[in-house]
């Protein structure tokens, strides 16, 4: 695990890695239609890549309003705290940008993961891309 680092990514320069990860996780594994996966928010988002040496293994994005999303880790690297590292990087970046509240839409099976990071469920369960989700919020303490 100590070889895994999270860095800020550039949507244009790192596009192939971001797309490879999200296509593997959301489109191939979870059957999310491509037209729902790719949106105009990617252009304005701050992107993160989790790297093992020079190989990208996970990604996430932070929108200007504090919405964290598209958190995805390739199957072979799950269970190694890669998701935690991505989320911690996104939360820290949000706090550095004075975004006092972070929000996300979580797949229901992942709510305990996000709760460990300080998020709380703030909605009823709903379907998005055919997958049960809930909205979650985390309030930051001032830095």
What does this structure look like?
This protein has one domain: 3-Layer(aba) Sandwich (Aminopeptidase). Helix content is 31%, strand content 34%. Strands 1, 2, 3, 4, 5, 6, 7 and 8 form an eight-stranded mixed beta sheet that branches. Helix 4 links the parallel strand 4 and strand 5. The chain is globular and about 35 Å long.
The rounded distance between the terminal residues' Cα atoms is 28 Å
Shape: globular
Which topology does CATH recognise? Answer: Aminopeptidase
Q: Please tell me the overall pLDDT.
A: 94
Give the beta-strand count.
Answer: 8
| Coarse structural class | alpha+beta
Helical content, roughly? 25-40%
CATH architecture heading: 3-Layer(aba) Sandwich
Estimated share of beta-strand residues: 25-35%
- Characterize the biggest β-sheet: 8 strands, mixed
The CATH top-level class label: Alpha Beta
Uncertain residue segments? none
Number of helices: 5
Fourth CATH level, the homologous superfamily: Gcn5-related N-acetyltransferase (GNAT)
Number of domain units? 1
The H-and-E topology, N to C, reads as EHHHEEEHEHEEE
Radius of gyration: 14 Å
Protein name: GNAT family N-acetyltransferase
Keywords: Acyltransferase, Transferase
Organism: Pseudomonas bharatica CSV86
GO molecular function: acyltransferase activity, transferring groups other than amino-acyl groups
